[in-house]
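Exam review. A common question shows you a sequence with its C-alpha cells and asks you to describe the fold in words. Practice with the pair below. Do the first one on your own.
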Amino acid sequence: MSFTVVIPARYASTRLPGKPLRDIVGKPMVQHVCERASESRASRVVVATDDPRIQSACEAFGAEVVMTSPNHVSGTDRLEEVVRKLGLDPDHRVVNVQGDEPLIPPRLIDQVAENLDLYPEAAIATLCERIHDIEQVFNPNVVKVVFDLEGMAHYFSRAPIPWARDHWSETGQDTLSAPSAGAALNDGAGYFRHIGIYGYRASVLSRFVSWPPAPTEQAESLEQLRALYNGARIHVEVAAGTPPAGVDTEEDLQRVREWMVKSIKRGAHGA
C-alpha cells in the first residue's frame, strides 16, 4: 500500500498565532506531527504551507515542503494544489493530517489509507468514535455522522443525528433543546462523533475544487457535505484508537507539553 501524508500548516491561526512553530519539548509542533506521520506506513510525508517561516523550520529538520497559495478558501483546496504540484496519479491515496495534531496515533493514518484499498467504491475515507456523553450529542461543535451497514456515510451534522425518538422520550429529553439534567445516554442510541482525518483518492480532489459549495455545506459549515452532495462516497469506520485532542489554544498547548514531558520521563525510567 502506497500513500502520501500531507500536513497543512498555517501560521495565521486566530486563537494561537504561529501554531505550527510553537515549541513542544524542544521541537516545533509541526515536527512532532511529521514524526507521527513518518511512523505510519506512508511512503511520503509532505508539509503544505504558505509561510516561509514554516518552510524554513521544516526544512531545518529535514521535512519535504510544498509551498501553496495563501488565497485558498479551504484546506481541501490547499491539498489539491499539493497533489497537482507533486503530479500524483489519480488513484494515489493521500491522507490529510492536520498540523495541530502532534499526538495523532500513526495507526489511524494507516487505517484511513487501508480503507481506501478495502472499499474501492469510496472516494474518501474517514473515522469516527462512539459518543457516550449526552452533552456531546447536543454540542454543535461536535460533528455527528450517520452511516450504513458497509460504513458509507449518509450525512454529517452538528445536530443530534439520528434523533433517537424513543430513547429521548424515555429519558425526558424530547426536544432539540439542551439536555435535561440527569438525562442518560446509552450505546443503543447510536451516536458517533466524526474524527477529522481524511484519506482521499487524488482524483476526487481535482473534482472537489471544481464543485461549488453545496447548500448543506453552507448550512452546516461542513466541507465534507460538498462531496456527498455531488455523489462522492465517503467511508466511515470506528477509529482503531481514541485520538488525543488537537491544539487550538494556549491551554491545549500546555496540556500537550505536560503529556510529552511525562511520556519522556516514563520512557527514561522504563515505565
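Now try the second one, then compare your answer with the model answer below.
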Amino acid sequence: MNLRGLVSVSGKPGLFKLIGQNKSGFILETLDELKNKIVVNMSTAKMASLEDITVFGDTNDLKLSDIFSKMKDVKSIPDPKSADGKALRSFFLEVAPDHDQERVYASDMKKIISWFNTIKDMPLFEEAAPEPISEGAVASGNVTKKPEPVAKEKPRATKAAGKSATRLAPKV
C-alpha cells in the first residue's frame, strides 16, 4: 500500500494529495471528485502524512498501513457516521487487536474508517510502498541526485574611465 503523498491537514476535513510546494506553503489536492486545489501555509497548518501515522498499541505503536491492510480483508466495515462506540471498538479489536483501548478513542476510529473508505478504491491502495532512500544507497552512488543549480553570470555594461567595458558580475 502506497500512502506516500497523502496527508491530513488539521482543521480541514478529508484527505489531500500533496502536489507540490511554493514559497508560501504546500499545494494540496482533494481526493474527492472535485479535485479542488488549495495552498496551506507551512507556518500555520499542521499536516500529517498517512505513511507516518501510528495508533497507540499495548506494547508497540501500530502503523496505519498495517491496520488498512487488515481492514481490506474484513467483510463488513461499520459506517463511521452512524456506528456507536461499542460497534467501533469491536471492529477495531478485530483489525487491530493490540491497540490501546484507553488511548484510542471512538473519534480516532471513525476518522481511520472514513480515511479507509476514501482511499480503498484508489489505485495507490494496491501499489507497493516505495522503498525509503537510505544513507548507504546515497553514499554508494546507487541513487542519482539532482545537480544543484549554479548561479549564472550575466555580463553587465559598465563605464570605467570614460570607456565602455563589459565585465562579468554575479546575478543577485
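Model answer, second protein: The domain at 6-125 is CATH 1.10.10.1650 (Arc Repressor Mutant, subunit A). The radius of gyration is 24 Å. Full marks require stating both points clearly.
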